Amino acid sequence: MVALAVAVWPRGDDAETPTPQSTQITSGVSGELRAAAGLAACPATATTGNGPLAGITLACLADGGPVDLAAALAGKPALLNLWAYWCAPCAQELPYLQQYAQRAGNAITVLTVHSDPDEAKALARLAGLDVKLPGVLDADTRVRTAVGAPAVLPVSVLVRADGSVADVVVRAFEGVDDIANTVARELGVAA
């Protein structure tokens, strides 16, 4: 019993232990692979964030650094696209998302969320599609769980500026106009 108590007793060095909602950024992806993908930087943390994404920190695909999702998205509407390198409908819609992001400009944040642990294959897929959107790695699908999305891909999550979820779109977008119409209807952002 004493050994068990010693084994589970808290120690003073717990500040280094990640919380259950954080992600350790320890991928084996090289800087060269990240550079070859040429992704845009992830949104910078502006403030603290609210909503179901609060407390979720994921790795940025562009540089491997941590991204507090709710804080990075706070204050502006966002479209999060959950995808994986092996998903054919995802590969079809990612270029549409790139075009939509260019069309919408700064009116909305478009962020890809790779919902698979293989970061190297995600970077290679994005490079092959010439998609340069900012993205994060969600190896254990915490975003999907947090917003209550089903276990299918692709899924797009439309997030209001206050961090609340406006809609979870469980289908592939069919083009840039489809994205623009959906976002305008659910978030009021015209593009």
UniProtKB/TrEMBL annotation:
Pfam family of the protein (one): Redoxin
PROSITE patterns given in the database record: THIOREDOXIN_1, THIOREDOXIN_2
Taxonomy, superkingdom: Bacteria
Domain Thioredoxin: start-end pairs: 35-188
Predominant subcellular localization, coarse grouping: other
Keyword Oxidoreductase: no
Keywords annotated in UniProt: Cytochrome c-type biogenesis, Disulfide bond, Redox-active center, Signal-anchor, Transmembrane
InterPro entries: Redoxin, Thioredoxin-like_sf, Thioredoxin_CS, Thioredoxin_domain, Thioredoxin_ResA/DsbE_sf
Cell location: Cell envelope
Protein name: TlpA family protein disulfide reductase
UniProt lineage: Bacteria, Bacillati, Actinomycetota, Actinomycetes, Mycobacteriales
